[in-house]
What does this fold into?
Amino acid sequence: MPELASSAATVEFRHVTKRYDRGAGSSSGTPGAVNDLSLTVPAGKICVLVGPSGCGKTTSLKMVNRLIEPTSGQILIDGVDAATREVNELRRSIGYVIQQVGLFPHQTIAHNVATVPRLLGWPKARQQERAEELLGLVGLDPGRYRSRYPAQLSGGERQRVGVARALAADPPIMLMDEPFGAVDPIVRERLQNEFLRLQEDLAKTILFVTHDIDEAIKMGDLVAVMRTGGILAQFGPPTEILTNPSSEFVAQFVGTDRGLKRLSLARVADLPIRPPVTARPADPAGQARERMNADPFPYLLLVDEADRPIGWLDQHDIPADGVLKADRATATSPLLNKRTTLKDALSLLLDADVQAGILVDRNGKVQGLVTAGMIFDWFREDVRDVDRDRPVPAEETAAAAVRA
Amino acid sequence: MDLLAKVAAWFANPATWSGPDGIPIRLLEHVGISAVSLLIAGAIALPIGLAIGHTGRGAGFAINLANLGRAIPSLAAIGIVVPFTQALDPELGFSLYPTVIGMVVLAIPPILVNAYTGIAEVDRDLVESARGMGLREREILRGVEIPVAMPVLFAGIRSAAVQVIATATLGAIYAFGGLGRYIVDGVAQNDNGKLFGGVILVAALALAAEASLSILQRVLTSPGLRRAEPSSAAAP
Amino acid sequence: MDWAWIGDHLGAILGRTIQHIQLAGIALTVGFAISFALALVAIRWRRAYAPISGIAGILYTIPSLAVFSAFIAITGFSILTVEIPLVMYTLVILVRNIVAGFDGVSADVLEAATGMGYTRRERLTRIELPLAVPLIVAGLRLASVSTIGLVTITAVVSDTFGGLGFFIKERPFFLTEVLVGAIPSILLAVLADVLFSRVQRLLTPWSKRVAQPLLPEAAT
It folds into this structure.
């Protein structure tokens, strides 16, 4: 069970500025300046810092564990100024994951993972135990991996070890700098999903840096969009950024496919269930006909005894009497499950060039159908909801009160 | 400094500059034999090294050869040959042949190994695209691999040159002439002026050779290949 | 081959072999100590590296016979005349390789170590040093082969030294004696090479390839 109280802290940036003598550098690799950054990350949430290169996102991250010291301003962890803490003690209490991972090549995986516990002086047995526990947590079989060396692992495996290593001492805060950037998109997607699942159990405060807006939207509870020069352009939940970009820059950065991006935030589970008209082969045709007339959707879905889809029957192919024939059914549509994002669902529908996808449960049993129209309807409703839920500026309510 | 005075006196002495034991003759001997040995070693080592690098076969041989080459003490390289060549020709077989053979033998490993590594380190993609464009193997070697490998190739030649000059100096122990003569004679005759004069001359020659080959290398290397020093800054 | 001669002189041969190992050993030990110190200086103060490396490079170019003979004038026929140049030549190889060893530690490993809370000293001893070891040992390998070779040349300085080189030079036309000097000295060098190679393998269980040392001649 997660121990929320001890394992997540709040992080607050208070007017943090970083200046370099020669002016803000924005070539890749050179840290850029940060300009009066103020934001608060509540405990247990993932805050993603996103922006083009040179916007200071990595610099901001590194100021939390003081790899870079702010020129002015404060960074408060659970209300305590990070600058007042002894620097190595501070760093040992923060999990740190970087893009190239930086696993120590001369140490075994188990040794790598147990680094911070070892620095903190945990007893050997407990170090070992913890290392194995964490390897399991990140999906690596401890038996197979503990005695291997980093050079023997693939990129994805190394990333997992990096995350395990950062979690070893159960730090209240995690800093992650493009942690999934160095692997291919398939592995990256898997790592992202697994990490999100992990976070559901651990609920740590996480600061996550990426240049990829899609990753930011997917991973963040809160998104901080930064622009070149280290300026915070917008800070809010992903839906807010997508629906109401606060400036031209944010709108551009998010991309003209904001709508599609929002679709990636919702899942088929968010849609209303719409059961299709179903029938088994050899069912009486007449009954089927009647049920078809009652439903606007022009196709009937043939299913087997376990209610698994066989194929669609065009309503014109249903004879007036006699029984339904399975051989007249056309190929079935894409199968979706509850967790499929609306964006993926729409994409599948387009690919297959069909009017509807079929929602099935874990056993393949038909639950409902999903049409492009339903997705669009959801979208429109969602916009209305966001607008309605947005906090209204003070003057408007006062004016409304006066008018009322 | 007494030593300085002695050396200065030796250089100032006109006899030092004249006759068969004069500096010009000795210098010529030294440079001449070094150049010849380098050329012979190059003629042997370069083709083999380039071939190994280009085809990739025999790489193990090249590495082992390099290690072996380094393991042979220079004195041994000359010394082993002496009993044999002296039987052939009592005079030159003592003063000239062993030294030359020793020089060639010791110069081969650096040239060969660097030729091999230089070519082997050329980006394979480069070679493949050249091949894909229809260049023949020899054209690839000449037009792509060698120019790109030039710095490493030349490092091998420079190393061999230094080695060769040093070995020629050693040859004086076996009655070879060259600038080493002054050093060996200086020790035997307890003449520090001559000894240090020789030391200075030999050092100057070696440095001059290294410097001029460096310049030659820079001239022969395309400007597009001058790479910046990689930096690996430690984190604060 | 005159085996009788060898039989008669076994004692001397053994003695010279031991001397050869001793002379080389002293040079390597002293040279390594000085090189390590110089390397740490060069890493701390980057600006010092170029001159150190430059001087070392120039030194290497000068033929060893010249250096040994020059020292005769300075330190006479003592063991210093032999050891000081030998040590100098090891510096050339070792300083560069020790520095390169530390430089070779990947920047992200260093960043991860610092970010996780290693103190500077902990980082040096637990991360940088172990990772620098392969190249350092490779440098030692090179230096030992080179030094063993150079010891033979000290035979020119005086008959008291020279190790096995003594036999090479004493009677140049006598093949047996020349071989008695040459072959064992080659074997010693090869032995040193193999030994250090083994040590290198042992100390780096995590690496598949054997690190190649930086050669004393300038790379490019």
User: Anything to note?
Assistant: The radius of gyration of chain C is 20 Å. Chain C has a mean pLDDT of 86. The domain at 3-202 of chain C is CATH 1.10.3720.10 (MetI-like fold).
